[in-house]
Amino acid sequence: MRKKPASKPYLRTYRLQPENQETPIHFLQADTVNHPLFYRRNHFSYPSLSYSNYWLSINGFVAKPVLLSIQDLLQLPSKKGQVVLECAGNKRSLFHPKVFGEQWEKGAISQGVWKGVPLRILLEAAGVKKGAKEVVVEGYDYEKKTDLDEVHTYTRSLPIEKAFHPDTIIAYEYNHQPIPFKHGYPLRLIVPQWYAMASVKWIKQITVIDDHYAGPFQSVDYMYYPHKETNKVAFPVTHINVNSTIQKPLNMDILNTGTHVVRGIAWTGKGVITKVEISFDRGQTWLMAQKELARTGYGWVSWLYEWKAEKKGEYTIMSRAVDSYGRIQPAAPFWNRKGYGYNAIDQIEVKVE
Amino acid sequence: MRKKPASKPYLRTYRLQPENQETPIHFLQADTVNHPLFYRRNHFSYPSLSYSNYWLSINGFVAKPVLLSIQDLLQLPSKKGQVVLECAGNKRSLFHPKVFGEQWEKGAISQGVWKGVPLRILLEAAGVKKGAKEVVVEGYDYEKKTDLDEVHTYTRSLPIEKAFHPDTIIAYEYNHQPIPFKHGYPLRLIVPQWYAMASVKWIKQITVIDDHYAGPFQSVDYMYYPHKETNKVAFPVTHINVNSTIQKPLNMDILNTGTHVVRGIAWTGKGVITKVEISFDRGQTWLMAQKELARTGYGWVSWLYEWKAEKKGEYTIMSRAVDSYGRIQPAAPFWNRKGYGYNAIDQIEVKVE
Predict the structure, then answer these.
(1) Mean pLDDT throughout B313-331?
(2) Which of B37, B138, B205, B321 is most buried, by CB atoms within 10 Å?
(3) Please, which residues 118-157 of chain B have a Cβ atom closer than 8 Å to chain A?
(4) For B179, how many CA atoms within 13 A lie in the half-sphere containing its CB?
């Protein structure tokens, strides 16, 4: 007898140049996403780096610029913890009217354990001058943007307070291994609780400024534009919205009558998840889901609900998360032209037969 | 300098038990789908087969039942050719109202070179009796269906004329190699021009009958049910509908002004593709696409259109194929409750900036 072959999930491909592929979030049970299934989101081609001559520079509005090797960094105090990284465009495909850009479904999100040196330690070593406003982090990846005629590196700034937050780190390990190249090797900024555009990969240099940085990845992209035709009242994408995703059953599944476990994840960028609820009547009544795995650090919560599906028919199942800041998933998403921050109540349809 | 890592497309995962994964059709340029990217569609778990004791039996309404080893089959005259296999549920996710079942996008389709013994040679060897109506082909895969309380093998019948068609083969090779296990090793029925539910994998036996076979995979599933609530006027799924898919650009892509190649495939289950047209004005006017690769055998046609996108703005791009039977893709799909045979004009939206 031949052994039955294993079946495994794969990343979902959106684009290869630059590489954009999604985590098969509906097929993961574990609390950590191993790196082959970690979603890949790039603005540009992968950069070429020289590792034999890699130095991290902290410069700009500081008393004494610092140049560190990876070995230097490894000697410094470190922090380690579970962090959810979610692309600001996660669930973009669900907006109506539809918006242009990568049509991410629900898997532009992953979590895992990141380890690195708190950015504040490096900033303190360089001596940030009084009046510093932002910390600019530049990646090695660069190219021409489709909407601008110049070449740009992928660069973003953090407000000085966020840069000094003790959990904002210059990471060198993911899941107890050096960071995989596609996720930022050798060094990646990790900004917990913000959408992942803030977590700059392949760090080239860190520059303190006494001004506001207005590069395209925070003045053109990663801005919420509430109107289709004008840029008025635009504002920047920062914290992750409170959110949840049903992993099982799958949308449009056909099930037997009997007990089914409805399972999923919930996460937030402010405080912690306090409650996840399920509805079988389009949101008229809500039932409490159980926690399956407690959150650690800035990770997500796994939840489940044992559903006795006794009656044949079609069902809508919804999930809704609440966080400790009192934020709750809305019935309708906040539509914005570039499709960021989708966090409407999650919803699937199933048929019991 | 480190070499930039390659990026490759993967199958898209819908389910692991049974395994249903889709070909990343938008990321393929080649005329043949290599087996790691060949879509996988199963009703049941993969079967366990004994290869050391594998015999193909042709029995039933015949003069003399025949039992053949694989070695016996390899001695017989063979046929080889390019064949499109398309799941009847390909593009199911595009129906509105939505239908239950696997939400295939546009990649439950593949093509490659199949080689095997014409079924008619085996039928002639067994001596089909006068009055034979159908040939039943049973696979080794079996399980309980969600909607029926019995265990069934995956079994379907062919009308006697289709079974005797010289291009209906008992295949033992795919792309010049033994058939990959997940695609039916050691023997798979290949029925060109029919949706792929007809091409039974892991053949266990072939039985000639003088009656109509009414197993669940041709009386419950793989029937077109035009009405949501009744089974009236249902009719079986057989030939592939005339169809086309735009592979490039991707839906909701953002492009530069300039020349872009619109590229895709077109195929049919009756005759050959005679024309592929493109529209940029929602179907008011149609422009002729060029053939990129000519079809061979029962393969698809690759086509392209050089599009000069000079003006910024949002565009709808449509593709429409016509076959030698005068069949043409309709503006609206033929809605049916189980979501088979979707073949409406293909359509994507892009933004030029």
Answers:
(1) 97
(2) B321
(3) 146-147
(4) 22
- The pLDDT score that the predictor gives to residue B2 is 55
Query: ω before B9 within 30° of 0 (cis)?
Result: no
Q: Do B100 and A49 touch (CB under 8 A)?
A: no
CA-nearest of B195, B22, B33, B222 to B103 is B22
- Tens digits of per-residue pLDDT, A19-58? 999 999 999 876 788 899 999 999 999 998 888 889 999 9
Q: What's the angle, vertex CA A321, arms to CA A318 and CA A325, rounded to 5?
A: 155
Q: Is A46's Cβ below 8 Å from some Cβ in B?
A: yes
Cβ of B4 within 8 Å of Cβ of A146? The answer is no
pTM of the prediction? 0.94
**Beta strand pairing call for B258-267 and B253-255:** unpaired
| Structure confidence at residue A143 (pLDDT) | 87
Residue A98 has pLDDT above 90, yes or no: yes
The alpha-carbon gap from A324 to the nearest alpha carbon of chain B, in Å, equals 34
Half-sphere exposure of B239 (CA within 13 A, CB side): 14
